[in-house]
């Protein structure tokens, strides 16, 4: 089929946050993530646009949404793709409802992203959270939209397994008083030597400015990744730092 002009306009609009919020939908592209999406959450697929040969291969293996699956040409897929080189399949997916629950906070380790602006970083952090079994990723209202196409792409499917909730750190702390809140700061205690818990919130700050003053006041523990004596780097990438810190927490006896 040929994608109509109205459908093209709609699909392109989902590259912008205001339209993702308006329609409560976002876009997922690529063979791997589309397959994971259909295998894990086919109920969230609002529409599926794919090349004929992709659909032929997927049909015996995956639950393609009836009445919502459309075979399209490479040219039409290129018109709506957010990728520089369009993939074989594009899905329109509903944004899940998210709510803050005390049990979610107290069930293990969670991350709090305070002003992460780069969508690639956000997606990579979701991937880190998925790898280390982090129960939830909370993010400040100042963060990049979790459903930004670049964030989704960088997450490599982690968005399907790791819930994301937008909330102020203050509200998390008020909901679960006494919960340890670890903040990654430059002048904190050596994370490799600090006493760490298997329960709590790990706060990761903005790429350039670190943790905001409004969030810093809620920290109960200040931790840092020490640099080598001869190291010349000014700081670590936010996603890299998150991976190191999560690994240290998971390595605690």
Features:
about 250 residues; alpha/beta; 60s Ribosomal Protein L30, Chain: A; Alpha/beta knot; 2 domains; 6-stranded parallel sheet; 10 strands
Describe this entry's structure for a reader.
With 253 residues, the chain is α/β, with parallel strands linked by helices. The protein has two domains: 5-94, Ribosomal protein L30/S12 (60s Ribosomal Protein L30, Chain: A); 102-250, Alpha/beta knot (3-Layer(aba) Sandwich), CATH 3.40.1280.10. The chain has eleven helices and ten strands. It has helices spanning 5-13, 17-23, 31-40, 52-58, 74-80, 102-106, 119-131, 149-155, 169-175, 213-216, 238-250, and strands at 25-29, 45-50, 69-71, 89-94, 109-114, 136-139, 164-166, 181-190, 200-205, 221-224. The chain has a six-stranded parallel beta sheet. The chain is elongated, with a radius of gyration of 20 Å. The protein starts with a helix and ends with a helix. The model has no long low-confidence stretch (mean pLDDT 93).
């Amino acid at each position: 089929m040929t994608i109509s002009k109205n459908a093209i306009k709609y699909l392109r609009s989902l590259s912008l946050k205001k339209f993702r919020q308006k329609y409560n939908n976002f876009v997922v592209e690529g063979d791997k993530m589309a397959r994971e999406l259909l295998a894990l959450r086919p109920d969230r697929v609002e529409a599926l646009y794919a090349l004929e040969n992709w659909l032929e291969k997927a049909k015996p293996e995956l639950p393609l949404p009836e009445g919502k699956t459309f075979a399209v040409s490479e040219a039409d897929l290129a018109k709506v793709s957010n990728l520089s080189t369009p993939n074989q399949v594009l899905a329109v997916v509903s944004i899940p409802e998210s709510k803050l629950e005390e049990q979610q906070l107290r069930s293990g380790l969670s991350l709090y992203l305070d002003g992460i602006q780069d969508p690639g970083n956000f997606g990579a952090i979701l991937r880190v959270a998925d790898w280390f079994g982090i129960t939830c990723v909370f993010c400040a209202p100042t963060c990049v939209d979790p459903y930004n196409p670049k964030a989704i792409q960088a997450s490599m499917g982690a968005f399907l397994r790791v819930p994301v909730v937008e909330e102020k750190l203050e509200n998390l702390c008020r909901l679960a008083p006494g919960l340890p809140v670890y903040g990654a700061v430059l002048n904190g205690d050596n994370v490799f030597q600090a006493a760490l818990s298997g329960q709590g919130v790990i706060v990761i700050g903005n790429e350039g400015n670190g943790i905001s003053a409004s969030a810093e006041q809620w920290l109960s523990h200040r931790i840092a990744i020490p640099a080598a004596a001869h190291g010349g780097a000014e700081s670590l990438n936010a996603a890299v730092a998150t991976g190191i810190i999560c690994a240290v927490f998971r390595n605690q006896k």
